[in-house]
Write a structure and sequence with these properties.
Length: 406
């Protein structure tokens, strides 16, 4: 079995991806290193004028020396490893942050006069991109409830050139019917993209479900150690050439040092996500039985909103979920979060360390209800937890003493 066999499982692919001989060895020298070197370069040198002329023409291809902005073996290895993880992918573009990847993906398909449909549970910078940057370029953005297929079908019928999804929503954790939404959009000729940061490239075969491209904030799970900012967009055959052209025109590039850090994170992605998911599920189960909690929004938890679709479509999860408190007093919520000793308070997630964040998704949605159906409408105060790699029992003990402060 070759190490680029597409039949290999994700746990194997995160280990083998991108480790080509020519990126880990030196010509004429036997043996090679496990990891590609950090190739720092602006100028790539050419053998002669004829080679230079060729480089400007047809040879401006992925994986060939050209100029520093096109990257070198360190960035190529990372992009290739990410592409290998997504069945149906043609290539991956790296960006200096997850938000830059979202902007790059949307700018590569939208034109003035187009209409973009964005899921109402989208990450708020995605929302603001529709309301700000894209509006400036003549694109209209309409938000839709990801759980209402009929309303979505009606919006698509009015005309839409692109659809941007996020599943589960990274504050409110709705799981939408991805294949059904993608089929409706594609039938109308619209591009379909998904922010897949939550389950990451190992947890969902999105392109195989009819989605044209996925965006991943590598800052989160792939980096995994809270020391890196990076994003990626992976496209099918239809989308990838557009992603590439737009990224080149916008001058997007990541440093080889950062690419090496992301590659290091990627090698342990599968084992970290499995450990986090197991711990998060145990903690979510414990929280669901506590009297202070109105709802636990964790798709991996049987009976929680979205669990059935998650179990049908996803092959993995992660440590990120939200809970809704019964208290309606924001000061009581702050006492709970402030009392946590093992959870840091801060943005981002997916690192080795646990985090807690007060969240109020109602502020960043316009057409879907908060709290979700089935939860006491008076209970609106959310707390998002990112479960890290600490001992599960220690984290539960910490949550227990903090809940007592409510
Ligand atoms: C953090 C995040 C992003 C953006 O990533 P950055 O690297 O912080 O720009 C995009 N989508 C989701 C769902 C995120 O949580």
């Amino acid at each position: 079995m070759a190490n680029d066999d597409p039949g290999l499982k994700p746990a194997t692919k995160v280990v083998t991806g991108g480790r080509r001989d020519e990126w880990t060895g030196v010509p004429g020298q036997p043996g090679r290193t496990v990891n590609p070197a950090v190739w720092r370069a602006s100028t790539h040198l050419y053998a002669d004028c004829a080679a230079l002329a060729e480089g400007k023409g047809a040879a401006n291809e992925d994986g060939r020396f050209f100029y520093g902005r096109r990257g070198g073996p360190t960035q190529w290895a990372l992009a290739e490893a990410l592409t290998a993880l997504e069945p149906g992918a043609c290539g991956t573009i790296l960006y200096p942050s997850g938000v830059a990847a979202i902007a790059g993906a949307l700018m590569s398909v939208l034109r003035p006069g187009d209409r973009l449909l964005v899921t109402d549970n989208a990450y708020d910078p995605t929302r603001n991109m529709g309301l700000g940057l894209l509006r400036q370029f003549g694109v209209r953005t309409t938000f839709f409830d990801p759980l209402d297929l009929d309303a979505f079908r009606a919006l698509v019928a009015e005309g839409a050139q692109a659809v941007f999804l996020e599943a589960p929503g990274s504050l409110s954790f709705e799981v939408c019917d991805l294949p059904a939404l993608a089929a409706i959009a594609r039938e109308a000729g619209a591009w379909v993209m998904l922010d897949n940061t939550w389950s990451g490239p190992t947890g969902l075969a999105a392109l195989a479900m009819g989605i044209d491209g996925t965006v991943n904030a590598l800052t989160k799970h792939v980096g995994g150690h809270s020391d890196l900012m990076m994003g990626a967009a992976t496209g099918n055959e239809r989308l990838y050439p557009r992603l590439r052209r737009t990224a080149q025109q916008m001058g997007q590039v990541v440093s080889p040092d950062d690419a090496a850090l992301a590659l290091r994170g990627l090698r342990t992605l599968d084992v970290r996500l499995k450990r986090e998911s197991e711990s998060a599920l145990a903690i979510a189960t414990w929280l669901a039985a506590r009297p202070e909690i109105a709802a636990v929004l964790c798709p991996m938890l049987p009976g929680a909103p979205g669990h059935d679709l998650w179990a049908r479509d996803f092959s993995g999860g992660c440590g990120l979920f939200s809970l809704i408190l019964k208290t309606t007093d924001p000061a009581a919520r702050a006492r709970f979060v402030d009392a946590l000793a093992l959870f840091g308070i801060g943005y981002s997630w997916g690192g080795f360390e646990s985090l807690a964040l007060p969240v109020d998704p109602a502020r960043d949605r316009s057409v879907s209800p908060w709290p979700p159906a089935g939860v006491d409408p008076a209970a609106t105060l959310g707390v998002r937890l990112s479960i890290g790699l600490e001992d599960t029992g220690d984290l539960i003990a910490d949550l227990e003493q903090a809940l007592d402060r409510i």
